[in-house]
Amino acid sequence: MNADIKEKDLLEGLALGDKKAVETIYKDNFNMVQSLVINNNGSAQEAKDIFQEAMIVLLEKARSGNFELNCQIKTYVYSVCRRIWLKRLQQYNRYTNEVESMVGTVSVEEDVEEYEKRDQEFAMMEKAIGSLGEPCKSLIEAFYIQKRNMQDIASQFGYTNADNAKNQKYKCLMRLKKLFFAQYKNGK
Question: For position 107, what pLDDT does the model report?
Fold first, then answer.
């Protein structure tokens, strides 16, 4: 399906209150907005609020009948959320010089492209972890995701001490690195 047609269908669906269109827009855009807010002095709850406000803006525009979208929905939503968030930061006096300097210099398209690239890399890492096999997969998840210490991991996995668990984690990490970069080179 042509991307422009899909975007137009999503906007029409949104204007008509189609639940599937709303869910698709949410699924395709919320994580990007959440990253924007959290990486700029915000919380997950604030990200939800900002995204909700942007969805209302998009809904009103879509229902107006004369709204012509000249970019991707993702770019539009990001741009609206970014403006709303910057205004909110200013209101809360959390508006830092770093964020202030970011306003004029970084284009929305660059931010979206960078986010999409990072999202793709996370997907590749998730795939690499999935193909890692046991016990490496569980060991890596226990240390990096569950933030467990090496002594707990040694007990859970039956290693004689934390140093042995640490050595095994290193070997697993090297296997994961090899799998990830093989995928990265192939662009899959």
Answer: 55
Which of 44, 34, 114 is closest to 77 using CA atoms?
34
* pLDDT digit string, tens, across residues 103-123: 444 455 666 677 677 777 777
Q: Which amino acid is at 96?
A: T
Could you write out the DSSP letters of every residue in 88-120? Answer: HHHHTT---HHHHHHHHHS-HHHHHHHHHHHHH
- CATH fold label, 3-106: Rna Polymerase Sigma Factor; Chain: A (1.10.1740)
Fold of 118-186: Arc Repressor Mutant, subunit A (1.10.10)
The pTM assigned to this predicted structure is: 0.50
- Which of helix, strand or coil describes residue 67? coil
When pLDDT is averaged across residues 148-161 and rounded to a whole number, the result is 89
